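tokens incoming
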């Protein structure tokens, strides 16, 4: 089967302009974009990412359908289930040899050692998001062929150093909120006193 070619568009991510492969629903014109972190975009990988996110990738753009349009179409053609004849649930998609090869290549690029794990800031979840595949597939390939996921030393250090600062900020916020409420209560008590003071001042001025 020939590889689909998707239009390339520019998107802004984290303050940077990147290229993305775009798919457009032929029925409702909604779009989705596959942003690649590297220098080039694999059309095969983009198609796999779109399918993993519920899109129907046709042989041409005229046959592309978004998840919502597929659900609406399915609701029209699927007959009502009965207690005697219920439709069997579709089994989850299995990891193919090509999927395994792509996942292996990505992990091999980012995995440092069985003691360190991934390079910063990569994890199983980050690799899965980047490739558009289930996290369980990434974890399986990593456990079979590399080693433990490990921890991100820089991220762990960040969390350790950030935790007390975050706690202090929360305490300061609570303290400021309490002081602001107290200031409002005092202001409510001062307002009638000010009106009384002005009235007394006017009466003293008239008496003099």
């Amino acid at each position: 089967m020939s590889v689909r070619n998707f239009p390339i568009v520019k998107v802004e991510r984290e303050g940077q302009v990147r290229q993305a492969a775009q798919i457009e629903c032929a029925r409702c014109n909604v779009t989705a974009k596959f942003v690649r972190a590297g220098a080039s975009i694999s059309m095969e990988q983009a198609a796999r990412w779109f399918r993993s996110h519920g899109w129907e990738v046709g042989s041409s753009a005229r046959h592309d359908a978004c998840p919502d349009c597929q659900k609406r179409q399915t609701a029209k053609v699927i007959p009502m289930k009965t207690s005697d004849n219920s439709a069997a649930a579709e089994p989850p998609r299995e990891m193919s040899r090509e999927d395994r090869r792509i996942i292996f290549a990505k992990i091999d690029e980012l995995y440092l050692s069985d003691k360190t794990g991934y390079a910063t800031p990569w994890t199983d979840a980050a690799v899965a998001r980047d490739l558009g595949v289930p996290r369980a597939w990434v974890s399986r390939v990593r456990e079979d062929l590399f080693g433990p996921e490990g921890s991100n030393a820089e991220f762990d250090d960040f969390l350790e150093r950030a935790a007390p600062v975050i706690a202090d900020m929360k305490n300061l916020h609570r303290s400021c909120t309490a002081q602001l409420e107290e200031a409002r209560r005092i202001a409510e008590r001062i307002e009638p006193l000010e009106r009384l003071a002005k009235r007394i001042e006017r009466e003293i001025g008239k008496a003099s």
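note: The chain is about 50% helix and 10% strand.
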